[in-house]
Amino acid sequence: MKKLQAPRGTLDVLPPDGRRRLALAGIADEVLGRAGYEPFETPVFEDTEVFARGVGESTDIVQKEMFTFEDKAGRSLTLRPEATAGICRAYVEHGMHKLPQPVKVWEAGPFFRHEAPQAGRFRQFTQIDAEAIGSDDPSLDAELILLFDEILERAGTGPRRLRLSSLGTPETRAEYVEELKRFLRAREDELSEEVRSRIDQNPLRAFDADHPGTQAVMKDAPLLLDRLAPDDAEHFTAVRELLDAAGLGYEIDPTLVRGLDYYTRTVFEVESDRLGAQAALGGGGRYDGLIEELGGPPTPGVGWAAGVERILMAAGEAERDGGIDVFVAGTGRDAFVLVRQLRGSGLRAQMEQAGRSLKGQMKQADRLGARWTVILGDEIEVKDMDSGAQQRAGSVDEVVRMVGA
Ligand code: AMP
Fold it and tell me: At a CB cut-off of 8 Å and minimum separation 6, what does 352 contact?
């Protein structure tokens, strides 16, 4: 028979990782909740058009990476490759512009991209995503970046780098791209073959080239950050001042580009010093044109998405599970009733459920890290697993008292 396996690029979450994921979601809920971000849920699949319009037809995500399928009525649906487009679709659909602004939400769940799997890159992965929609106040950009950093700090990801830039408006960007193309064409013979052949499709890639000749040319290249319209430049300065005031370090990276079309003004990305090729823990930015693109009124927004698997990889191995409170060495009705009573009083309690000998049961209690073991025989014995001391209990109620419930 064919051996059944999880599909390529997916992963099973085995203990104790499930608990680490819940703990991370708990950190996000606490940190974001304090700043007024409410949990939000959108479907795992959407009309393909949500992403085609929201993420951008020309992006790698839409062109190559979407899991798209037809439902029985022939509608084109797509497993969500990112969260922002779906959240903005919901904002428009439910008329949320009528609520007090900004609307602050966060969402966690699975996302899907048909990428080549490698360490830290999956076809189904988990993101935590936070968005503030309905205001272009620079304090929202700064707040979201700081909340993201706080979550990473509390998750224990260790050293990381924050790269920050501003993309201005789509018009500024289009003019700039033309200027960059003219610049590259004027020095075409100094560029690598690859960069030269892609001047029209993707001139920005030239900034990432390894080729020494290209790198020398790019030192003189015009930068988008120097071309920002005055109000965009001002907005960026305001964001930076707030991050400075909060004491958060960052690098200005004028070549920072993100793989989604909708960004305007602020963009940022956080990379871990502990991870290899796929080091981005998350990133985001402002998307002041997206809601309108999806059929809503002109509405600014800003947000980020963080990769849960990568955050947990950077945070390192799980600490040993804290163990349980009580192991009941015994079977049958009495043991069953006792663990229920112990659990009912708030203790983590387990009983023998695999037919072990008494010796095997004591070993199991050790493996589970039990604080107490209750041995049910003719008499009830309660063993303190730290000191090894063993005491007789007269009744089940006395057991419950002895183990500190
Ligand atoms: P993006 O919006 O594409 O920058 O994604 C935000 C974050 O999600 C990234 O920084 C990664 O941490 C994570 N991420 C994106 N794609 C993948 C993937 N294919 N596998 C695992 N994590 C991913």
Answer: 328, 329, 330, 331, 335, 361, 364
